[in-house]
Specification:
Number of domains: 4
Shape: globular
CATH topology of the largest domain: Phage tail proteins - horseshoe like beta roll fold
Largest sheet: 14 strands, mixed
Mean pLDDT: 86
Number of strands: 24
Radius of gyration: 22 Å
Order of helices and strands: EEEEEEEEHEHEEHEEEEEEEHEEEEEE
CATH architecture of the largest domain: Roll
CATH class of the largest domain: Mainly Beta
Length: about 350
């Protein structure tokens, strides 16, 4: 069941005050981003009033009474004259400093979860760790954006790192709970887009590293058996180390992510909620498009709440196979170069 008939509201809350009535809304989160982003604006007659925002303000964003994001202002443009006013608000979640800043840190012998917490602690970014994480022998970054190092470390461990509504981050495996909804073309969404993006795929994935203790060059590799021509991708392993097994897993992950991301579906739904809460990334949904032969469970990779040009509240989802986010070698479907046989649900 999908809640399509509940009036949708979006509010900013800070300093004990609520600010609503936003005419234009865009609240975005992605499985690939450490920051959720918010863009709101309103226009009206007269000079209007300004929001008492400062560079230090922390703003919570509420959608239909649910916490959706916790952000700092990126920009606060407004335009006024004697007859009208326009106020806009752009912000990103608390992890934006991990994206914008350059920082140096060296850590050794910590579990990945503890490592993420140590790096996020100075930036006051709360971190949630789901499950046990392996030890990272050595992690180092020098005058680098922490976001890149953290995302690569998470991917090497076959985990995801993305923004949470409280402004922090969660380190977790791909979601595998039951689908939160079944979405049927013609009933829950009236149009859709399918992308089969062959540019995502490469014939050979080679991850190169170096064993600093033994003084040996290392590499892990995986082939995409569906591509018959030479199209290689060589990757330099991250500084946090990892032996042959880690390099092999990183190559498998790169292969599987790109193979799965070569097929994705996007569509728009009415409202911001399903039966049990707000639409969110890393949740599974069943998608049924009969004439495409699609009846499969997908993972939500991108989600945007917005208000359309007619003033209606809508949710834009991009979904893809769960294999896009795991590093195991077992894929549920196999692409053939240039073939529609790559549709979800196909098996080896």
């Amino acid at each position: 069941m999908i809640n399509q008939d509940i009036p949708s509201t979006v509010e900013l809350r800070f300093d004990g005050v609520r600010y609503g009535f936003w005419q234009n809304v865009e609240i975005h989160e992605s499985i690939d981003d450490l920051c959720s982003s918010v863009r709101l604006s309103l226009s009206g007659d007269g000079t209007g009033t300004s929001l008492p925002l400062t560079v230090n303000t922390v703003v919570t964003v509420w959608v239909d009474g649910h916490l959706a994001a916790t952000v700092r202002p990126d920009s606060y443009p407004r335009r006024m004259d004697s007859k009208s006013h326009t106020i806009s608000f752009d912000g990103r979640s608390l992890a934006r400093e991990l994206v914008d800043c350059q920082y140096s840190k060296t850590l050794s012998g910590l579990k990945l979860g503890e490592l993420v917490k140590r790096i996020c602690e100075p930036f006051k970014v709360p971190v949630t760790i789901v499950g046990e994480t392996a030890v990272v022998p050595h992690f180092a970054m020098q005058c680098e954006m922490p976001a890149n190092a953290l995302i690569n470390a998470a991917r090497a461990a076959n985990l995801m790192l993305y923004a949470t509504p409280n402004g922090g981050l969660i380190l977790t495996p791909p979601g595998k709970d039951a689908p939160v909804a079944t979405l049927i073309y013609g009933e829950h969404f009236k149009s859709y887009g399918i992308v089969e993006d062959f540019r995502q795929r490469y014939s050979d994935y080679v991850v190169k590293g170096f064993d600093y203790e033994g003084g040996n060059a290392l590499k892990g590799s995986v082939k995409d058996i569906g591509i018959s021509y030479f199209r290689p991708m060589h990757i330099v392993a991250d500084k946090q180390g990892g032996g042959l097994g880690g390099l092999k897993r990183r190559a498998e992950l790169e292969h599987n992510r790109r193979l799965a991301r070569a097929f994705r579906i996007d569509f728009t739904l009415c409202g911001y909620q399903h039966a049990t809460g707000l639409w969110a990334v890393n949740k599974q949904v069943r998608v049924v498009i009969p004439h495409e032969g699609i009846d499969s469970v997908f993972l939500i990779g991108d989600r945007t709440f917005s208000r359309d040009e007619n003033g209606g509240s809508v949710t834009h989802l991009q979904v893809m196979p769960r294999d896009a986010f795991i590093g195991e070698e077992k894929l549920k479907r196999k692409h053939k170069a240039g073939s529609r046989a790559a549709a979800p649900g196909a098996t080896k």
